[in-house]
Amino acid sequence: MDNFAKIAASLFFIIILFVISGCRDNKQYNTRSFYEMGTIVNITLSSRNSYIINELNRKMKSWEKEVSRFAEKVNNAKPGQSIPVPGIIYNLLQKAEYYKKQSNEKFDITIATISSLYGFPKGPFRIPDNETIQNKSDDVGFSNLVFDKTSLSKKTELKIDMGAYAKGYIVDKGIEFLKSEGIKSAMINAGGDLYALGNKKNRKWHIAIKNPDNKTKFLSIIALKNKAVATSGNYERYFEKNGKRYTHIFDSTTLQTANNYKSISVIADTVERSDGLATVYYLMDINKIKELCKREKTPVLVYTLKSKKIKLCGWQGYEISN
After folding, report:
1. Binding residues
2. Residue 8: pLDDT band with limits 50, 70, 90
3. What is residue 83's three-state secondary structure?
4. Stated pTM of the model
5. Other CB atoms within 10 A of residue 220 CB
6. What CATH topology corresponds to 3-321?
7. What radius of gyration, in Å, describes the C-alpha atoms of the chain?
8. Domain range list for the chain
9. What residues are designated binding site for Mg(2+)?
């Protein structure tokens, strides 16, 4: 099985896992799936109004295109060239700066300058030599972006990738749309970036967290209401060369791919925060995770490279099975 097949299989399993756990009894629920943001998106509603799902699908596709087109414009622009900043993009840029600070500079959307040398996000994958990496090192750095609410320019030949949290942001906007339509019970699952709105009938939504080591088992089953959960890990987007695993998550302070944990799952009030902080935590050692999750008030499930589960900052309070 090639790397892309591995990725597709992993994503498909995540979707099935979450849907089985959260929606066993779907007699009064309408579930639709579509492919967007590089993954399968499942929408489960307490409504059979096809207009709402079709409109949500259209909106999410539109938001994703807006993010993708902006990143493409930035990546293809010359230093000093002015690029218009749409409304949702400005919010995402602010979030990028926030996560950079929280991670002590380890998280940086401009690390795409380096990750692209490896072929991420889509391949073909390769390993660049050290000289090539060092020649691009000065291009990396959020401070090389100059932006306000209307425009952005870059000081160097950098590239950006907001995928670590933009997908979650789009799911959040989808949930806000559903609320505006009077929907009180729903779940949106975008490849494991998930929001559970309201209750599923008379109980909270039950969500299973995948075990990267065994597709027939779960690391944890949690109950959520008006909460989000997202996972970052080394088992979905990666390639291997000479026995070493190269993940899609990069540390901007070392310019190297990170392989610190098998997975990290985060519960938060929004999917964007779950998504972004899962990546931030992935880049940190366990003591730093403990400190930051207390400040951020986000329950965390860490699954180490030695297959040990570490539950932090109140994860057990959401757990119904382990």
Report:
1. 164, 275, 279
2. very low
3. strand
4. 0.90
5. 22
6. T-fold (3.10.520)
7. 19
8. 3-321
9. 164, 275, 279
